[in-house]
């Protein structure tokens, strides 16, 4: 079994991994709701900026999410715990997909899910710098990303970085963060706009 030597102590790799997973659980477990503005940037493998967007996010456990992009192109993603709705007002189109394992592996929905499932489905690594960074690497190949970084300042999640199989990175920077404030249930109810085309995708 691999071991790590630090300060003269021998620590098994299994124990180290378990401690890191528990540390992430301690950060996320108290998070019942989360509301923040965000700035999103998509970078190519060379770090060049491909796209920027701004918006607002609401999250509540278990499984509730509303993600609204305001600029430059409006879009709403909402999960009520059973279905995920993607609304594109420019196309007047709503795509509906049942919540399944692949859908719940999207970064924002990961945060609203079960903590035990999260630490069981990913190898979790930890790095301490100006902020605490937890890196999640999927333990199965059928995921939407190859690496996910969660960055905390104190107890507050401030950044989320995702890397896909092409090397493209998505950076999401949160601001005006409010944790565990009450969020109206209607925020997680999606009313399909009149006249919009509805596409239901099978799992």
The coarse silhouette is globular
Instruction: State the end-to-end distance.
Output: 39 Å
Strand order of the largest sheet: 9-10-11-12-13-3-4-5-6-7-8-14
Taking all residues together, what is the mean pLDDT?
84
Q: What is the total tally of β strands?
A: 14
Give the amount of beta strand, in percent. Answer: over 45%
Major sheet summary line: 12 strands, mixed
Low-confidence runs (pLDDT<50, min 5 residues)? 1-12
Q: Total number of helical segments?
A: 3
Question: What series of H and E elements makes up the topology?
Answer: EEHEEEEEEHHEEEEEE
Determine Rg (CA atoms, Å): 18 Å
Summing up helix and strand content along with how strands pair, one would put the structural category as mainly beta
Q: What percent of the residues sit in helical stretches (DSSP H or I)?
A: 10-25%
Offer a concise description of the structure.
The protein is 14% helix and 50% strand.
Question: Which short descriptors sum up this protein?
Answer:
mainly beta; twelve-stranded mixed beta sheet; two-stranded antiparallel sheet; 3 helices; 14 strands
């Amino acid at each position: 079994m691999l071991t790590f030597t630090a300060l003269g102590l021998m620590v098994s790799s299994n124990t180290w991994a378990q401690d890191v997973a528990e540390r992430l659980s301690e950060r996320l477990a108290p998070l019942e709701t989360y509301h923040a503005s965000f700035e999103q940037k998509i970078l190519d493998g060379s770090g060049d900026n491909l796209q920027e967007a701004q918006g607002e996010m609401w999250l509540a456990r278990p499984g509730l999410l509303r993600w609204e992009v305001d600029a430059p192109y409006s879009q709403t993603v909402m999960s009520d715990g059973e279905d995920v709705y993607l609304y594109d007002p420019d196309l007047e189109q709503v795509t509906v997909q049942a919540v399944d394992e692949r859908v719940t592996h999207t970064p924002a929905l990961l945060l609203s899910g079960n903590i035990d499932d999260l630490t069981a489905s990913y190898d979790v690594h930890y790095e301490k710098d100006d902020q605490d960074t937890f890196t999640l690497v999927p333990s199965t190949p059928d995921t939407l990303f190859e690496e996910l970084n969660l960055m905390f300042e104190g107890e507050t999640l401030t950044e989320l970085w995702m890397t896909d199989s092409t090397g493209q990175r998505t950076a999401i920077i949160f601001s005006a963060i409010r944790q565990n404030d009450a969020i109206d249930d209607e925020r997680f109810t999606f009313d399909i706009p009149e006249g919009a085309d509805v596409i239901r995708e099978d799992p």
